[in-house]
Design a protein that fits this description.
Rossmann fold; 5-stranded parallel sheet; globular; about 40% helix; alpha/beta; about 10% strand; 5 strands
Amino acid sequence: MARPRLGVFKLASCDGCQLTLLDCEDELLAVAGAVDIANFPEASRRIEPGPYDVALVEGSVTTPHDAERIQQIRAESRLLITIGACATAGGIQALRNLADVDTYVAQVYATPAYISTLATSTAIADHVKVDFELRGCPIDKGQLLELLTALLFGRQPTLPNHSVCLDCKLAGNVCVVVAHGTPCLGPVTHAGCGALCPGYTRGCFGCYGPSRGSNPTAQSDLLARQVPDESTIRRLWQGFTTADPVFAEQASRFTGGDGE
């Protein structure tokens, strides 16, 4: 039987999520043996046209070229999977959505006329149908392998739906909110990082976006009692997943932080 054809693509991003796939090392050899990697410029000079059975897409739609490419990728792919915070929620570059991009371009580039960019940076799902999402900055290696394995065997992937707080408990971490009064988005953030930041006595920055069934409004109320400066709270919500509507709604409750 013909092996499923895999394409890995990059839009506006740092390449970190593609590197997670390369970091699978021994497991990657098994994946490479089970699929036909037809398009993965980060790893190989071999680039074959579609159609693809599965497309992994990293990055946000930030330029007119990105907007055209994602339409083409969608048309050529049976399943389209977005990987990482940029692809699922606009990423750090979505902070441009809160400011005047033309002003930024004029300040940074000597010849702004040569720069072709959109006024906003948006998630891929805002432009085309997405079949699966893998969140994070970067994505988790274990979740990626689980998803690819599930697709190969024709079953539903088993991915976590709980918040970072549960991972903190499982790891035996002392709660940074209770013990130190540290602002933390762990109660409302999707698991996947292994509670990395709280494990180093830092609050969760929300890299994986909102967890299902969480209560972000209550989290904002808690942050308002912890942090007197509203601009600090707003910036916390406007981090890696700025364009996520759940986090964006909470950010809008607080003044300050836009374009700063």
